[in-house]
Amino acid sequence: MELSEAYPMTGGDGLHSYAKNSDFQRKAIDVAKQLISKAIAQGLDVGDFNSTKSLGIADLGCSVGPNTFTAVDNIIEAVKSKYESQIPEFHVFFNDHVSNDFNLLFTSLPQDKQYYAAGVPGSFYDHVFPDASLHIVHSSSSLHWLSGVPKEVTNNNSPAFNKGRITYANSGDEVIRAFKAQNRKDMDRFLHARALEVVPGGLVILVFPYNPDGTHPSRIPINMSFGLIGSALMDLAGKGIVGEDKVDSFNMPVYVMHRHEVEAAVERNGCFSVVSMEILPKVRENFSSNDSVVDEIVGRARSATEGIIKPHFGEDILDELFDVFRKKLAEDFVPSAKTVDQEHLFLALKRKP
Ligand SMILES: C[S@@+](CC[C@H](N)C(=O)[O-])C[C@H]1O[C@@H](n2cnc3c(N)ncnc32)[C@H](O)[C@@H]1O
């Protein structure tokens, strides 16, 4: 088994926490709600429920809440309206990396929840549930995180060495190829594990940032934002605050898939049919000013990346790094407002018999 690296969102409920900086990801869950209902109404095919049978739901990459609770409620509401007279008991498994703040997740579980809850630590690129034990798997805003950075991009003897950058988006073909290959391997692992865990007729519902065909990776908002963190790190290297070699040995394990890469992965795996694949309506932000856009993006990026930046560069650089990042965002990124709308793909897969 290949080990996955772990880089959870910032825990707790402080200023920089994921819990306080994940409105954007919640909006992706909100816009997916109708499609989830439709996929469950038309696609879920797991037979009848009687008093002895419960329905297993897993949310992969659940983080700390509250978004995961909204997603789970949406799924349960859809199942209830499908089965009306024969409502099963629900067993919900919240999965994330072992270092995720599961304490916060458990202490914030809704008091009026309609399900039994359990935490399942471990990488979703591995087999983390018993065979044929899940009826619905959901994952939102998580699948763009790779199991790790491709080794060659931090190896200065490799043609894919990604010097001075922390994403593949503005890099040469070798670097892009290395990230693509990592994503391909990861998607194969992800679907292989789900094919074992999901019962025939069960669903895998995925919502993730995606790259509309034809868009160069450097124009994808999430890549642009992480690219600016890289540029901010290089500024700190220029001032001697971090070593340049430290920047060269650091990359974000993130890849934003094209639709055809998703389709190819499903086809290679062969165990699922596609119930629905749709581009979600854009997650639009209603900001009163450019400053508030910048605040939102800085908060979102910091809560998502501190967990990976801190172990490599240390905690002391964080405030200055995100100050520089904020300035770059305000100057380079936000003025072209339409680029802050990251697009998401909705994919519902049914486990074949
Ligand atoms: C941006 S958060 C999304 C959280 C939540 N699903 C939402 O929509 O708000 C991404 C989550 O995926 C988790 N994650 C990333 N890679 C993972 C992996 N290989 N296995 C389990 N969780 C993973 C991260 O730890 C993080 O909590």
From TrEMBL:
<keyword id="KW-0479">Metal-binding</keyword>
<dbReference type="Pfam" id="PF03492">
    <property type="entry name" value="Methyltransf_7"/>
</dbReference>
<keyword id="KW-0489">Methyltransferase</keyword>
<keyword id="KW-0808">Transferase</keyword>
<protein>
    <recommendedName>
        <fullName>S-adenosylmethionine-dependent methyltransferase</fullName>
    </recommendedName>
</protein>
<dbReference type="InterPro" id="IPR005299">
    <property type="entry name" value="MeTrfase_7"/>
</dbReference>
<dbReference type="InterPro" id="IPR042086">
    <property type="entry name" value="MeTrfase_capping"/>
</dbReference>
<dbReference type="InterPro" id="IPR029063">
    <property type="entry name" value="SAM-dependent_MTases_sf"/>
</dbReference>
<dbReference type="GO" id="GO:0046872">
    <property type="term" value="F:metal ion binding"/>
</dbReference>
<keyword id="KW-0460">Magnesium</keyword>
<dbReference type="GO" id="GO:0008168">
    <property type="term" value="F:methyltransferase activity"/>
</dbReference>
<dbReference type="GO" id="GO:0032259">
    <property type="term" value="P:methylation"/>
</dbReference>
